[in-house]
Structures are given as C-alpha cells and as structure tokens.
Amino acid sequence: MKNPLAPNREKTVTGHAISRVERGDPRYPSDADPMFEGGPIPDELWYVSIRCRNGSAPPDSLLHIVSSEQEAQQCAQKYPVGRVFADGETDIDKLPFMRDFFRKILDRNALSVFSVGIDPDTSLPGKVVVEAGIEDSFLGPLGTKVIEALGNGWIDEIYARYGPVSGHYLAMFEYAWSQLPRSSAAYLACQYYLQAEVLDDMHAAGYILRDLEIIYHGHEASIKRDRDYVARQAERSARAVEASAQKKARRKEVFEAAALTHLTKWLGKSEKSQLRALKSLAQNFDNESGEDLFLHGGRLLSNRWFQEALSSLRQSGKIEAKLAEFTQGK
C-alpha cells in the first residue's frame, strides 16, 4: 500500500431520501442526545439519507440530520445521483448539530453510536439460506433437504437439548458442515447464524458476514479473474522473453555462419564495404528462408547491430580459424 492514510474507495450516489421526523417519533433522538447540548430541542428534524455504492464493498448510506426542510433540500442537491466522491470527502461535519459532536459523545460515554456507521447487511444470511433451501422462508422452518439429511428424530433431540432457537440454527449448521463446501455462500450463512445466534459472538459473526458479502456479490470471482489474467500475462511475457532470446541467439548464429562462409566477399574491404556486404548476406538469408531474422518492421537491422555483431565475430577468433582452414586446404 503506497499511502496508508489515503482513501481506497470511491462512493457513487445511487439515491437519496428526505424524511421529516417530529419530536415523539420513535426515530427522533432522545432529549439527552449530545446533539442537543447547549441549545433548544426542536419540534422536528429532517433526515437526509444518501445511498451510495461503496467501491467493491457493500452499499452503505450517509445520514445527515438538519433542522429545516430547506437545509435538507440543499443537502440532497449536493449529492445528485451519479456523483462520485472519495471516501472522506463529504461535508457532514460542517452541518448544524455536528460541531463538537465527537467530544460530546465522549463526555456522555456513548461511543456505541458510531457502530451505526458499519451498516452491515445482516439480512443477507437469511436470504442465502432461503435461496439454498436450508430454510423454507426467512426465519421460517427448516428446509426439506435439511430434514431429510438429519432426520426428524435427531432434529427433535437438538431442539430438546438447546431450545427451539439455538436448536434451529445448530441443525442448519450441522447440515452445512456435513454437506456443503466451506467456501459456499450457504455454508457461510449457516456459520454466521451459529456465531451470532448460538455462540453470541458478534465479532466472529462480523468477519463471516463480510466474507459472505464478498462471495455472494461476486467479488471473489472478480479477484480470481484478475489474478488469472495477471498470471496469463506473466506467462505470455515469459514466453515472449524466451522466444526473443532464442531468436537473438539464432540471429547471431546465422550471421556468423554466413559471414564465415562468404569471407571473400567482405574480408579485407573498407569498413563501409564490409557492412554493405554483410547486410546483403543477411537480407538474402531472410528472403530465401522467410525467417525475418534481420528484418524489423520491414526494415533491415541498424548499422550499429551489424557493427556490434562483426566486432563480436572478430573477437571470437573464428575468422582466424576459418582462414587457417583455407590455408590448410591449399
């Protein structure tokens, strides 16, 4: 991670809703709420809920509380559908009632209010177990497949031991444990209910819920596709590098063989004439073989390449060895 302080997700506004909440409404904050400290308690408040798509994470909402309809309309206008902004770019802290809010929360030892911002999709496990046939309906009886797998007698015994609620979720989890892949959405949903409803471990349940969201919304598949694509690109790159190295080695081999076979056509001539003769040999090879060893983009390799190749040939001692063969042959 390049910068641990930077936001990593963008929010996209998908909708908003404005609602008027009168004092006495169950949704109205209590009179002791920190937002009312130091001022009168108004007869009504206006709630502006901004629904957002939160990058690859589950959708969430931003709740703005203002004191008048006009402020609510102005707030909604700042967040038109389709607006994209980085996490942390909202101006919620500048709205009425929000100044010094955090310190008031600390003074009243009411930090649990911030848990609302987590916005977990706790209905998702119920949706998944119904789709999987583990429950007949949301919070309904066990599905037929669970009853057939465990048997009515054993289910009745679980209910008798642990009660109807814990027994229900234990039966679901036993079915998932014995029948389902551990990474399936249905298994994770049953595991969530085990932690949340039977073991009362919401911390563990929260981790499982996030894993379920990743699986259910297809993020795991997207990550796998990205990883597979990167792996394929790396494999292609490795093959290209290998092919390039092989072609480079063959080019050198062919050049030296042609130069040594036709020594009399270029040896002893001026540097310019040598290059012209060697380039002609290379062009003839490509024309006859169709390999395009010495052509790049339809053009012959540069003078620099031929100069370096000739220099390497001279340093190898192969020219002297070939001349020695000629002398012995005579």
Q: Given the helix and strand composition, which structural class is it?
A: alpha+beta
Largest sheet: 4 strands, antiparallel
Name the shape in a single word: elongated
**Could you estimate the helical fraction of the residues in percent?**
40-55%
State the order of secondary-structure elements, H for helix, E for strand: EEEHEHHHHHHHHEEHH
Count of individual beta strands: 6
Q: What is the gist of this entry?
A:
The chain has 330 residues and is of the alpha+beta class. Helix content is 53%, strand content 12%.
Fold blueprint:
Blueprint: E1 10-22, E2 44-54, E3 57-66, H1 69-77, E4 84-86, H2 101-107, H3 124-131, H4 144-150, H5 152-179, H6 185-198, H7 202-216, H8 219-261, H9 271-289, E5 295-296, E6 299-300, H10 303-316, H11 318-329
Antiparallel strand pairs: 1-2, 1-4, 2-3, 5-6
Helix pairs in contact: 3-6, 4-5, 5-6, 6-7, 8-9
